[in-house]
Amino acid sequence: MNTQQQARELAAQERQHNEHLKESMLNRAQAEVQNPEEGNLTQEQARELAAQERQHDERLKESMLNRAKSEINSSSNTAD
Description:
The chain is mostly helical. Helices cover 91% and strands 0% of the residues. It contains two helices and no strands.
């Protein structure tokens, strides 16, 4: 798989993750409207979800950076 294919795959995974996140947030918001006494629990879950998303984003950026470095090193080695 070349770098462009990997980038497209990672972008598709990111879009899928964001859609899942939006759906989760919507479901939690609806649950909070229906059961306001559970609002504190829902806020805690929202904070945890946001932290998970930040961690996911960091892993994704790190993965893309490592793949780009690997591709550059591989290209420069074959050029020599």
